[in-house]
């Protein structure tokens, strides 16, 4: 029966635990145990299967940790101050251009200089007096930041996008749908286009009106950062390492190799002092290790779901209820939205949903391109709007330093509405026509 299917029950348990704010890693592990025990594996065997499955994401985990170290090194340099100065100089009194500029530069944090959300607490607080002066609605800024940290990895196979797209490639190939990285890149631009539409709606329609904020964030705390910073030799070495990291990715499409190359350049040319290497690596671990472990656990969870054999039964049941391609596409995207909202990680969602979506999509007769789009957007859905996601936690960390920006109502709700609805519509329509 559908209601006693181990896969379905374990997914429901995981979503409920995540929405109840249990630690994400624990929620995945408990849900994996539920699936294994319901199938009859027992606790010991379930743990063994989980650990064996985790090995499949070791490359991704190493990628996260190395990129985290690069982000930690950049945060210790003057590059961020340099960046803030020129952003402030460029936007000045250009009120409507402010959010577009922030979104544009935020995109670089996912590909050119892959620091992920680490730049937000450094960049945004010094700009709050300017935001207050121009009476810019911070909800629009939150949408701009979320766009910058999400749209690039959804769309482009560079930086964190290379990780995300490689996960899609690996999981689809594992589930008997042969695809290449070029196939994924050629389809996922649809997700990026839907997010661009959401960004424009947020800035020019829904959050365009001026909004008053109290000037409680003292000018003397931020004035020094608006002085033109001076680049030192170590800053150039850090920049060179970041550029090497980006350059190595293009021909090799190998994140661990490019991350290692970038760190070596930083160390050799003095960007990272020899005595500070341990501290930088620890900073990278603090920044990205938890996400890396979520990825490992998600892969192990997917392994248990696969070995229960209950996926086939679930696929048959859902296929009969979907009523065809339209219903199937909607169901898959809604389930992806719920899982990602709970997990808070698009990267961690893909291994979980691919086990179910690939055979279901084949059963419903979707093309290879449509399956790529459905899996990719189902994973991306919910990252914007999830209270547990870096895509929302990052913007709030920068915009709420003066306690005038609510995480749920000023970040999560606006980003949920502006991005998840367009992603859902573009995903369904795209899958039907591809």
Strand content: under 5%
Q: Calculate the mean pLDDT score and round it.
A: 79
Q: State the separation between the terminal residues, measured CA to CA.
A: 33 Å
Supply Rg: 22 Å
β-strand number: 0
**What share of the residues lie within helices?**
over 70%
Q: Sheet with the most strands?
A: none
Class based on secondary structure composition and strand pairing? mainly alpha
The best one-word shape is: globular
Structural domains: how many: 1
User: N-to-C SSE series?
Assistant: HHHHHHHHHHHHHHHHHHHH
- The number of helical runs is 20
Runs in which pLDDT lies below 50 for 5 or more consecutive residues are 220-225
Outline the structure in words.
The protein has 434 residues and is mainly α. It has one domain (2-433). Helices cover 75% and strands 0% of the residues. The chain has 20 helices and no strands. Helix 1 packs antiparallel against helix 2 (24-39), helix 1 (6-19) packs across helix 16 (325-343) and helix 10 packs parallel to helix 17. The longest helix has 32 residues, at 277-308. The radius of gyration is 22 Å and the shape is globular. The two termini are 33 Å apart. Residues 5-90 form the Putative Na+/H+ antiporter N-terminal domain. This is Sodium:proton antiporter.
């Amino acid at each position: 029966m559908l209601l006693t299917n181990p896969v379905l029950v374990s997914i429901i348990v995981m979503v409920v635990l995540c929405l109840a704010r249990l630690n994400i890693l624990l929620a995945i592990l408990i849900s994996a145990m539920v699936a294994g025990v319901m199938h009859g594996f027992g606790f010991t065997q379930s743990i063994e299967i989980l650990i064996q499955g985790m090995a499949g994401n070791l490359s991704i985990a190493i990628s996260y940790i190395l990129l985290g170290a690069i982000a930690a090194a950049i945060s210790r340099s003057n590059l961020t101050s340099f960046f803030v100065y020129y952003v402030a100089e460029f936007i000045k009194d250009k009120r409507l251009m402010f959010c577009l500029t922030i979104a544009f530069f935020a995109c670089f944090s996912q590909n050119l200089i892959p620091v992920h959300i680490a730049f937000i607490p450094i960049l945004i607080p010094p700009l709050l007096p300017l935001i207050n002066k121009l009476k810019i609605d911070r909800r629009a800024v939150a949408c701009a930041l979320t766009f910058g940290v999400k749209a690039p990895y959804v769309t482009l196979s560079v930086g964190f996008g290379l990780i995300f797209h490689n996960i899609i490639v690996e999981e689809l190939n594992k589930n008997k749908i042969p695809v290449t990285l070029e196939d994924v890149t050629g389809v996922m631009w649809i997700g990026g286009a839907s997010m661009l539409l959401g960004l424009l709606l947020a800035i020019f329609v829904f959050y365009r009106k001026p909004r008053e904020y109290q000037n409680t964030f003292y000018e003397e705390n931020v004035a020094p950062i608006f002085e033109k910073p001076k680049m030192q030799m170590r800053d150039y070495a850090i920049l060179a390492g970041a550029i090497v990291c980006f350059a190595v990715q293009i021909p090799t499409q190998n994140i661990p190799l490019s991350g290692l190359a970038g760190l070596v350049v930083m160390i050799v040319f003095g960007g990272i002092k020899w005595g500070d290497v341990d501290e930088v690596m620890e900073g990278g671990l603090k920044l990205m290790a938890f996400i890396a472990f979520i990825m490992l656990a998600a892969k192990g969870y997917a392994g248990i779901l696969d070995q229960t054999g209950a996926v086939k039964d679930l696929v048959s049941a859902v296929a009969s209820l979907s009523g065809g391609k339209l219903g199937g596409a909607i169901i898959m995207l809604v389930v992806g939205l719920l899982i990602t909202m709970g997990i808070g990680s698009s990267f961690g969602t893909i291994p979980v949903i691919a086990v179910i979506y690939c055979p279901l999509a084949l059963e419903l007769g979707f093309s290879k391109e449509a399956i790529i789009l459905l899996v990719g957007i189902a994973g991306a859905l919910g990252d914007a709007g999830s209270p547990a996601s870096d895509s929302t936690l990052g913007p709030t960390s920068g915009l709420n330093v003066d306690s005038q920006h609510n995480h749920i109502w000023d970040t999560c709700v606006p980003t949920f509405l502006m991005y998840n609805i367009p992603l859902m519509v573009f995903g369904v329509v795209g899958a039907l026509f591809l």
